Backbone:
């Protein structure tokens, strides 16, 4: 059975007090969330809070801390960067790699992202690799080609064993922070396509075991119909992860 995961990506939001009250709000609801080994939650806060969060999560075995990024370099004179090794040493288990905001604003290419994945895996972090088409590509009807190229140029360079330790997140750029969610049918169609590509590249069993998350304007209102689709294994949630009540409702969905 593949893992179901809800990831909250806080992006560059929440000051310290807000971060603490958000975490407390989620911990209060921990018992109601019906989590298990195969149904987990990952919170990816801004770096300054990551150790605080990973340490309070130690007593909550199905809550994990995640990083929003890691450096492609191993260590040394890279002012402002945070290495996979540093992240892993803070009891963090997941790292988001290749978010469209990183690709767009920080010019991260598939080549750089692949280096980040190698660094992360070397430290036993699980990369959550993001892919997804632009509005232009969706309107031109070439979104499958767009996504296939992102996979080919990055994660499909991994061996089957390495690929077995990543999570994929499909985040259509036009749905991020816009309030325009992909319909469950649109999302399912792409998730099924991604799973098919994994099957063709590696094997049926790897395809069946890969967790594929949907991200882009997920809310408490639309979560259950998205997660009811057979190839959607959870969500990568931005804005709605900043409200404990709403995020808990998404987890329950
Ligand atoms: P929103 O949920 O705010 O659309 O953000 C999605 C996202 O980018 C999560 O990584």
Residues:
């Amino acid at each position: 059975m593949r893992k179901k995961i809800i990831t909250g990506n806080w992006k560059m939001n929440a000051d310290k007090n807000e971060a603490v009250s958000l975490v407390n709000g989620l911990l209060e609801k921990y018992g109601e969330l019906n989590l298990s080994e195969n149904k987990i939650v990952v919170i990816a806060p801004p770096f300054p809070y990551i150790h605080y969060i990973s340490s309070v999560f130690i007593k909550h075995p199905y809550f994990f801390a995640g990083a929003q990024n890691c450096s492609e370099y191993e260590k040394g004179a890279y002012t402002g960067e945070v290495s996979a090794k540093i992240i892993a040493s803070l009891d963090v288990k997941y790292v988001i790699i290749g978010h469209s905001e990183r690709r767009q604003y920080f010019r991260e290419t598939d080549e750089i992202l692949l280096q980040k994945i190698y660094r992360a895996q070397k430290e036993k972090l699980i990369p959550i690799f993001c892919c997804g088409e632009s509005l232009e590509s969706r309107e031109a009807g070439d979104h499958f080609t767009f996504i296939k190229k992102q996979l080919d140029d990055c994660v499909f360079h991994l061996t089957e064993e390495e690929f077995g330790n990543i999570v994929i997140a499909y985040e259509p750029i036009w749905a991020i922070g816009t309030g325009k969610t992909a319909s469950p049918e649109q999302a399912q169609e792409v998730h099924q396509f991604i799973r098919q590509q994994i099957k063709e590249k590696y094997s049926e069993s790897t395809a069946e075991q890969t967790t594929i998350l949907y991200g882009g304007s997920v809310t408490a209102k639309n979560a259950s119909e998205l997660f009811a689709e057979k190839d959607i294994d959870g969500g990568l949630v931005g804005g709605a992860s900043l409200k404990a009540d709403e995020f808990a409702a998404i987890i329950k969905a």
